[in-house]
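Morning. Coffee machine broken again, so started the prediction first thing and wrote up yesterday's gels while waiting. Chain of 379 residues, entered below exactly as on the submission form.
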Amino acid sequence: IPSKYFPLFISDTSKLKIFVILEISLFSQLVSQMIIDIKAPIMYHFSHDIKTIIVAFICLLIFYISAFSLVEFEITKSHLYKEYQDILSEKALAIVELNCVTRETLFYIYKGTIQPEYTNADYSFLVSKSVMSKIPIKYQQQVKDFFSISNFEKNFIAHKTKLEYEYEFRGLNEEFMWLKATVHLKRERTFLKAIIILEDISQEKIFKTAAERDSWTGLYNKKTTEKLVTTYINNTKQGALFLIDLDNFKTVNDKLGHQTGDEVLIDLSEKLGAVFGNHNIIGRIGGDEFAVFVKNGSEINRFELEEKANQIKELMVTTYISDTIKVRTSVSMGISIVDDQTMTFNDIYMCADLALYESKYRGRNAFTFYCNACKVREN
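Came back before lunch.
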């Protein structure tokens, strides 16, 4: 066997056995054929021997070419697999291979280097020391549930062999980063194997945030606001939309300058977050126009919505001063509640916009509820 192929045969003795058996079979057939030929007439024997040698040579040539082509394919595949692993190791922050039956890590690679202290170690020890201790408290239970072996087993039984999860993680310099965990589940002969790949997606998150957020206030932009509200309405058929417009915003820009105008925008965005909370959808959908979609898993409480509207109304009555110039700001609001006639974003937006127009018409610094029966107001 040529030396370049020998390591592969040694690593997989089944290939060596098959190769030897085939080789013995071929030689046996040639020897038996030559014995039969001995009994043939001399002239026939001589000519037939030449034919037999030629046929044997061709058979051996074909055999070796075929056998070593297969071996070459295996070696090439092995090299490609190793290259793929190397590339994956460079891309991944960490790779863990886990035996879900013994609950032991088969190996752990961190930044391309095998970590011997975590090889054949208890998986729960790895999770508690390297994962849970660096997760913000509010996310710890969710992350723990995702990385649990019972979760892997449950998903594998449900024929889900690839799981993905994104979470916030505290890095070596105590700076928070975003990680993406991808788990591949595979049944080995006697156990379920999980390959866990962790990738740093902090930059992707930054780009995604930039695409979804208003660059100045940090709130959702118009496109993202519409997308999130549409998804929520489709799933729950509930909610209420506030359209909020800054009164006298143009006057602020004209008399006090755009820097003060930017401060007013940031002031309103912060107060909206304080009143409505981050669990609701808050977006800036125009120059001085904001939208807040109030989620609710049960029936919307009209009194609570009025209370929120009054809070924002009172908070935004502010006078901005520059030298001797004073400009008073306030907000006008239109509110529409999801019902049988407002089941899309466009529907609820148009209704809230009509109510907002009514608030402006009545002198600003007001809020108006849209009512299907009266078409405009009820406040």
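The radius of gyration is 36 Å. Going to sketch it on the whiteboard this afternoon.
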